[in-house]
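Justification of resources, computational component.

The compute hours requested in this renewal are based largely on the per-chain cost of generating structure records like the one below. Each record pairs the submitted sequence with a full structure-token output. That output is archived, and it is also reused by downstream analysis tasks.
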Amino acid sequence: MLKTTALVCGAGGFIGSHLVRRLKLDGFWVRGIDLKMPDYGDSEADEFVVGDLRQQDFCARVIDRGFHEVYQLAADMGGAGYIFTGQHDADIIHNSATINLNVADLCRRRAVGRVFFSSSACVYPAVNQQNPDNPNCVESSAYPASPDSEYGWEKLISERLFQSYGRNYAMTCRIARYHNIFGPSGTWDGGREKVPAAICRKVAQAAHGGEIEIWGDGRQTRSFLYIDECIEGTLRLMRSGFAGPVNIGSEEMVSINQLVDMVCDIAGKRLHKRHVAGPTGVRGRASDNRLIAETLDWQPTQSLMAGLEKTYAWVESQLLRRAA
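The structure output for this chain reads:
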């Protein structure tokens, strides 16, 4: 009996490597694709092909059959220090758009069963996220379009790409807008790390009674979703009758200052916050989960603190390993 097959584009990345593991647990035969292998451990994919999905010939070689499920997570991405400086805008648009154009068309040509595209909360208009206490991230608010970054603009046009392929070629496409996914095995240094990992690293490196550097005034708000919750929401959407776009995130919103305090509590440290100039993005953002609750009867269940405890322990272990 043939196994159900899945292709994960971006399988060397944080979310992709976790998704591969879950698909294997669910009994799939999995091919992973990325520019590199996962940074923290071996891939659990049955087959992992290193290559560049921006190249049409490579894309045709790895999307070589009608996979039951294709997950398109591959993108040029990073944290605020990469996305919001303006120095990488051309690369972000060109690289990610080229990948999405190639993957969408190959999935059409191979008659892939279902295609998932990972969009982002960055598609939402910046003007709706200026109040840190009351941001508007309901799915319908994405239009009139005015994303906060070129990364957000590319994600929005790629949503429309997959929606168009769905309409014109009867492709079954599913689209999720991820909100700040975090957890073990995510990038934690080097400039592309997301806020939770960066804060965990800074707290772990600081001496008790010392200080921690924070970009901006720390009053900007965000919600953060633990990786296991993200994978569960993704699979439920992929196998549902609902196309999206839909938010996959947490409604537990905290300020960056509060996030620092939570990590300090986990570490058992008292640290002084030193606020410095730096890219901060919008003032407020949190997932609005009303639509996913209505359509998929799903909500994340794990608290932010529980996820931070696991993430801090993992980041601390990486620092100790590096120092050894």
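The domain at 182-223+252-285+302-323 is CATH 3.90.25.10 (UDP-galactose 4-epimerase; domain 1). The first strand starts at residue 5 and ends at 9.
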